[in-house]
């Protein structure tokens, strides 16, 4: 037994060394999992929003607020049935559009204003001072200008926007705004309200290029 004990000890020691060597080699070949980075923007609401996307959300929201107010004014002050019916359509459609817009803005953490622009509010008061056929003609002409401006803003967002949610919002609103414009053009023709080449910018979406004129 005494003669075999050293051999057994040597064998055991050799096995242990071999196991350690193999284990170390395996560890060296197995990549160590990298530490999970701390996420700084894991939700859509935390992503960066381009200036174009932010501008569209703000301007479209203020445009919606202005159009809703204008629609209500048409319902209460409009003389022609076409003006009153278009006014009701503006209230319903722009309310729906703005609800979706606010949801997107909330997800992207874009703060929206609570009122139309100061210019829009001033022009709304000027329009509210009119009555009868004069109101109908001025209102229709103003809404045509505003919806053309809105379509221009939509096309710019579709072309230059970055956030998929905002671009989808613009695409979805385009046919609605176009339908409004078509109805307004028909009403203008019926009212004989053919105005100057550049009608006053009442209740319009404020586009930088237009403001520079």
Q: How would you sum up this structure in a few lines?
A:
This protein is mainly alpha-helical.
What do you see in this structure?
- The chain has 213 residues and is an all-alpha fold.
- The chain is 71% helix and 0% strand.
- It is elongated.
Features:
disordered C terminus; 213 residues; mainly alpha; elongated; single chain
The number of distinct helices, counting runs of at least 4 residues, comes to 7
Quick one: how many beta strands? 0
What is the residue-mean pLDDT, rounded to a whole number?
A: 79
Major sheet attributes? none
Order of helices and strands: HHHHHHH
Q: Rg, please?
A: 33 Å
User: Spans of 5+ residues with little confidence (pLDDT < 50)?
Assistant: 1-46, 193-213
The class by helix and strand makeup works out as mainly alpha
List the SSEs and their pairings.
Blueprint lengths: L3 H26 L21 H27 L3 H27 L10 H11 L3 H29 L3 H28 L16 H4 L2
